[in-house]
Specification:
Layout: H1 14-35, H2 45-58, H3 60-79, H4 81-92, H5 100-115, H6 122-134, H7 139-155, H8 161-173, H9 180-211, H10 220-235, H11 245-265, H12 268-271, H13 273-279, E1 284-292, H14 294-305, E2 317-326, H15 343-360, H16 365-377, H17 380-399, H18 401-413, H19 418-435, H20 439-456, H21 461-475, H22 483-492, H23 496-524
C-alpha cells in the first residue's frame, strides 16, 4: 500500500477512552481482590458489562436534564434569537472581544466557590463555543472559559455546600468542630490566585488564535464538527443583523431562565435565612400525630440494621411531624422553592421555558414539538458519555476499591512531618479523586478518616478540608470520569484528549500553586 494511502493515527474518542478506563478498573479490582480478599471484591464480567447501564441509572437526573436542555437550546436556535443575539453582542464588542473572557470566568468562579457550580455549567459550553467562534476565537476558548472559571471556583470553595459544607459536616460527625473563618480565608486565596492564573492563560491562547487561526490546538475534524454545530451563529457576525421584537423577547426569557436556574441551585438558606424565607413565602405547614406500635418500631429497627428482633410486651406512642398544606410562590411550578432545587426541578423549569420560548418566538405547535425532539436527540452522545463516566464510579463503589485505596492512603500519612504532610496529603487526594470524582461523596467517605488523622498529628483539620477541596478541584478540571467535563466538551465538539493537551501545563501550575498555599497554611495555622 502506498504511504499516502495509509491512515493517520487518530486519538480514540471519549467513548473508547472511558471503556478502556472501565476495563482497567475492573482488572485492578481482580488484582487487589487477590491481595486483600476481604476488602475488595473482584469485578465479574457482568459487573463490567452492566456498569454503563448502572451508571446511566445513577446519573439519570443529570442525563434527563441534558436531554431537556438540548430541546431548550434547539428551540432557541429555531427562533433565530440565539444566533442573532450572539452576532449583535460580538459587534458591540468589536475590538474588545477579549474583555468577555475575564468577566465570564470571574462570574463562573463566583458560582463555583459559593455553590459548587459544576454540572450546571453544561448548558454554557455550546453557547460560549458559538460566541467565541463569532468573536474570532475557537471553541476551545469557550470551553476553557466555562471549565476553568467554574473549576477554579470549586477548588477554592468558600461556602460551597457540596465541598466544604459536606466536609465540615463530616468533621462534625467525627467530633471535630471546624472554624469556618479559616476555611473561607484559605478558599478565597486559592480561588483568587488560581482564577487569575487561568484567566491569563486563556487570554494568551485566545490572542494567538485571534491573530492566527492556524495556531488553534483543535484538529481539522474538531474544527469541522464545531463549524457544523456552531458555525451558523459565528457566520451571522459578518452580516448586518438586527433583532426583531420577538427575538428580543426570547433573549430576555433565555437570560431569565438561566438566572432562575442558578438561583435555584444555590443553597440560599445556608447563606441568608431572610432571602430563603422570601422565596418560600406563602408556604404553610400543619402538625400531625401518627400512632406508633411495637410492630412499627421493630420493623423500622430491623430494616435499618438488617436484623430480626423480638420484643416482649407492647409499646405505644405517637410520632409528631408536619405536612405541607400550601406551597410557597416559587414552588408552584417545580414543587420546591428556589434555593432547594436539584436536577429534577431544573429539568422541569427548562422544559416549561422551552415551550414558552417557542410560543414567544412565533413557532407553530408542530414546530415546537419537532424542534424540541430534534434538540433532545442531538444530546444523545453527550448523555452516553455521562453514563459511561458514571459507570466507572459505580463499579469502584460496588467492588469496594475506592474505600480500600482511601484507607491505605490514610495509613501512609501517619508519622509524616508537617512540611511533607500537606503535599503528600494533597497528592493522595489527587489520586483518590479519580476513584471518587463526586466532591460530596469524597468528603463523606474521606474526611471522617483524614480530618481526625490531621488533628491527631497536630495539624489543622480545616486545612485538611481545603487540601481535599483543592486537590479534587484540580482533578475535576480534566478527569474523564466527570460527566460534566465529558458532556460539556462533547457539546463544544472538543475531544477530551485535545482538552488534556491544551490544559496540562496549566493544571501542573495550578497543582503546584495549590500545594504551596496549603503547605504554608498548615505550617502557620
Amino acid at each position: 500500500m502506498a504511504e499516502a494511502d495509509k491512515k493517520k493515527f487518530s486519538m480514540p474518542s471519549s467513548f473508547t477512552i472511558l471503556l478502556l478506563l472501565l476495563a482497567i478498573v475492573a482488572i485492578v479490582t481482580v488484582i487487589v481482590a487477590g491481595v486483600a480478599p476481604g476488602e475488595v471484591t473482584a469485578a465479574k464480567f457482568s459487573d463490567f458489562f452492566t456498569a454503563p447501564v448502572k451508571g446511566f441509572a445513577d446519573a439519570l437526573p443529570v442525563c434527563l436534564f441534558v436531554f431537556i436542555l438540548g430541546g431548550f437550546l434547539g428551540m432557541m436556535t429555531k427562533t433565530g434569537a440565539l444566533d442573532n443575539g450572539i452576532a449583535v453582542l460580538v459587534k458591540k464588542l468589536k475590538g474588545n472581544e477579549l474583555v468577555i473572557i475575564p468577566v465570564l470566568m470571574a462570574i463562573f468562579a463566583l458560582g463555583g466557590t459559593t455553590y459548587g457550580m459544576c454540572e450546571e455549567t453544561v448548558p454554557f459550553y455550546a453557547l460560549l463555543a458559538a460566541t467565541m467562534m463569532a468573536a474570532g476565537f475557537d471553541p476551545m476558548v469557550g470551553a476553557a472559559t466555562v471549565l476553568l472559571g467554574a473549576g477554579c471556583g470549586c477548588l477554592g470553595s468558600t461556602v460551597n455546600p457540596f465541598a466544604v459544607g459536606a466536609a465540615v459536616d463530616a468533621l462534625r460527625s467525627s467530633g471535630i468542630e471546624a472554624d469556618q473563618t479559616i476555611i473561607i480565608g484559605i478558599g478565597l486565596v486559592l480561588c483568587v490566585v488560581t482564577t487569575i492564573i487561568s484567566i491569563l492563560f486563556v487570554m494568551s491562547y485566545a490572542k494567538k488564535v485571534k491573530a492566527d487561526k492556524g495556531s488553534t490546538i483543535l484538529s481539522m475534524q474538531e474544527l469541522k464538527n464545531a463549524e457544523e454545530a456552531h458555525g451558523a451563529a459565528a457566520a451571522e457576525v459578518n452580516k448586518d443583523i438586527s433583532l426583531t421584537g420577538r427575538q428580543k423577547g426570547v433573549l430576555v426569557i433565555f437570560a431569565f431562565t438561566f438566572v432562575v436556574m442558578i438561583l435555584g441551585f444555590i443553597p440560599i438558606a445556608d447563606l441568608n435565612e431572610g432571602v430563603a424565607a422570601f422565596f418560600d413565602s406563602g408556604s404553610a405547614y400543619e402538625a400531625v400525630e401518627t400512632p406508633v406500635t411495637t410492630d412499627d418500631l421493630v420493623a423500622a429497627y430491623d430494616e435499618a440494621n438488617d436484623t430480626v428482633t423480638t420484643v416482649e410486651g407492647t409499646v405505644e406512642g405517637v410520632a409528631e411531624g408536619e405536612v405541607q398544606t400550601a406551597q410557597g410562590w416559587s414552588a408552584v411550578i417545580t414543587g420546591l422553592p428556589i434555593g432547594q432545587w436539584y436536577f429534577d426541578e431544573a429539568s422541569t423549569w427548562f422544559f416549561i421555558m422551552a415551550i414558552v420560548i417557542g410560543i414567544v418566538g412565533g413557532l407553530s405547535e408542530k414546530d415546537i414539538v419537532n424542534t424540541f425532539i430534534s434538540g433532545a436527540a442531538d444530546m444523545m452522545s453527550v448523555v452516553l458519555v455521562i453514563a459511561l463516566a458514571r459507570g466507572i464510579s459505580v463499579l469502584m463503589a460496588a467492588t469496594g476499591l475506592d474505600m480500600y485505596v482511601l484507607n491505605a492512603a490514610a495509613n501512609a500519612l501517619k508519622g509524616v512531618s508537617g512540611v511533607l504532610f500537606a503535599p503528600v496529603a494533597w497528592l493522595i487526594y489527587f489520586g483518590l479523586s479519580f476513584l471518587i470524582p463526586s466532591t460530596s461523596g469524597m468528603a463523606t467517605v474521606s474526611i471522617p478518616i483524614m480530618g481526625p488523622l490531621a488533628q491527631q498529628l497536630g495539624f489543622s483539620p480545616e486545612v485538611m478540608v481545603m487540601i481535599f477541596s483543592s486537590a479534587i478541584g484540580v482533578v475535576n478540571l480534566f478527569t474523564p470520569t466527570s460527566g460534566a467535563i465529558m458532556g460539556g466538551l462533547a457539546l463544544a465538539r472538543i475531544e477530551w484528549t485535545t482538552w488534556l493537551k491544551f490544559a496540562m501545563k496549566l493544571i501542573v501550575v495550578l497543582s503546584i500553586v495549590c500545594i504551596v498555599i496549603c503547605t504554608v497554611a498548615i505550617m502557620i495555622i
